[in-house]
Every structure is written in structure tokens, then in C-alpha cells.
Design goal:
- There is one protein chain.
- Helices cover 62% and strands 5% of the residues.
- The chain is mainly alpha-helical.
- The protein folds into two domains: 55 residues; 124 residues, no CATH class.
- A two-stranded parallel sheet has the order 1-3.
């Protein structure tokens, strides 16, 4: 009888020891898990902070349009001009690198040479373009490096094309955002961008 009691006490002590050990291990595991989760959240939030400037310039729908880029680059005075809606399209695609929008289709890298070519094309063929004054107003401002209303320019061209709001510009990208967009879409590293997007007073 005494042996059963002693055995019972030993079993009970063992069960309590094992249960206590598991309880302590579970608490330590929960602490470690919460520390790991906190560290992951910290690193995720730090990554989010780093990428906030990128997220507003959506490249999911932005890709380079080499066909239209080459058409501009190869056009010479006296060549057949672009049809009216192609002028609207290429100028709008150039604006994509400088705007914030939920969606962008293709993009054309802005260069001073391309702006000059488009100005020349429109000026030489005014009678073929219903909205030549709008094109020249936009392009001549851009030639001076003034992109302070590039978001409005983009949306005006969208309206001329009959688009309502899908892909409308909601703002102007910062220089940092634009540099990132140029790298991700055109695979070009630049230290500075062509023109200023500061609002004119």
C-alpha cells in the first residue's frame, strides 16, 4: 500500500514536472514567435516605407513602346505625318513617365529631340490636325522644360481621345519617382530628369 502511494507521488510529481516544463516552453515559444512576428512586421513596414514612392508610379501597366518611339525618331521633315490620333497617343505616352496614375499603357521616353520632332511635324501639318493648337501648346511648354501641368496635359489628351477616367493622371511624379520609372520601364539609369515638374506661380 505504501509502495502504491510512493509510486503515485512519483507519478504525480513527474506529471507536474512535465506539465510545468511544457508550460514554460510554450510561454517561451510564444515570446519568441511574437518577437519574430514583430521583427518581420518591422522589416515589412521598413520595406513599405522604402517603396512608398514607387507604388504611386504604377509600372504594372507601363511598358516601353519601341514601335512608336522609333517612328518618332525616324520621322524627317517631308515624311508622311502621323495621323491625328497617333500624335495624341504618343504625346500622352510620353507624359506617362512624369505622372501618377492607377493605370498606364505603353510609355515613350521623353527626350528633347523627340519633342522637337513632334513640334516640327505638327507645325508642318497643322491643316491635318484638328487639335494642333493643343499639341503645340503642350509640346512647346515641354521644350522649355516646363512640365508643371503634365498631369493636366495628359488628361486633356485622354479626353480628346474619348477616354473618361481609366488611367487618368492623379498627380505629378516626384523626380525620384520618375527616375525609378525610367529605370524600371526603359532600363536606363539617370541621375536627373529632363524638365521641371514644379508648379509655376
Amino acid at each position: 500500500m505504501k509502495g502504491i502511494r510512493v509510486l503515485g507521488l512519483i507519478v504525480l510529481t513527474a506529471l507536474l514536472s512535465i506539465g510545468g516544463t511544457f508550460l514554460i516552453m510554450e510561454k517561451n515559444y510564444e515570446k519568441e514567435t511574437s518577437k519574430v512576428a514583430e521583427n518581420e512586421l518591422d522589416s515589412i513596414s521598413k520595406e513599405d516605407e522604402k517603396e512608398v514612392f514607387v507604388s504611386t508610379v504604377d509600372t504594372n501597366f507601363g511598358w516601353e513602346n519601341p514601335v512608336h518611339s522609333n517612328m518618332i525618331d525616324e520621322w524627317k521633315s517631308g515624311d508622311e505625318p502621323f495621323v491625328d490620333n497617333l500624335v495624341e497617343e504618343v504625346v500622352q505616352q510620353m507624359a506617362h513617365q512624369k505622372i501618377i496614375a492607377d493605370e498606364k499603357e505603353s510609355s515613350i521616353l521623353i527626350t528633347a529631340e523627340r519633342i522637337d520632332i513632334l513640334i516640327q511635324m505638327v507645325e508642318e501639318n497643322k491643316d491635318k490636325y484638328e487639335h494642333h493648337e493643343t499639341y503645340l501648346d503642350i509640346l512647346k511648354r515641354w521644350k522649355k522644360g516646363d512640365f508643371s501641368t503634365v498631369d493636366d496635359d495628359h488628361n486633356v489628351l485622354m479626353r480628346i481621345q474619348g477616354s473618361k477616367t481609366l488611367g487618368a493622371a492623379t498627380g505629378i511624379a516626384t523626380e525620384e519617382q520618375e527616375i525609378d520609372y525610367i529605370f524600371r520601364v526603359f532600363a536606363k539609369e539617370v541621375d536627373e530628369v529632363f524638365g521641371s515638374t514644379e508648379k509655376q506661380k
